[in-house]
Design brief:
- This protein has 110 residues and is mostly helical.
- The chain is 77% helix and 0% strand.
- Helix 1 packs parallel to helix 3 (55-77).
- It is flat.
Length: 110
């Protein structure tokens, strides 16, 4: 269940960040409201995930997957450019999260 909360936190944070761009500095009401609700949802869900998942692991997954996801969303829907360096950086982010989770021994509470 904790990883479902973490997935919800990631999805809500990516949604909130996307709508933050659309809010035009909080001057547009609907995107601004989606942003606020999205961030509140993200932090609530992350807090629930942290009841079981160690903080370092949860944050690595949340920030790493969130960074890659918002980059892809921005590329698809906002036309932001991705070059080879950006793609390489995203691959390294995901690799780092995987190494941390699978090989470093940080996935336990002890």
């Amino acid at each position: 269940m904790a990883y479902l909360y973490l997935a919800l936190a990631i999805g809500a944070e990516v949604t909130a960040t996307f709508f933050l761009t659309l809010s035009d500095g909080f001057t547009r009401r609907l995107p601004s409201c989606v942003t606020v609700v999205g961030y509140l949802t993200a932090f609530y869900a992350l807090s629930q995930a942290l009841r079981t998942i160690p903080t370092g692991v949860a944050y690595a997954i949340w920030s790493g997957v969130g960074t890659v996801a918002i980059t892809i969303v921005s590329w698809i829907w906002l036309g932001q450019k991705l070059n080879l360096a950006a793609v390489g950086g995203m691959v390294m982010i995901i690799a780092g999260v995987m190494v941390m989770n699978l090989c470093s021994g940080t996935s336990g509470h002890g």
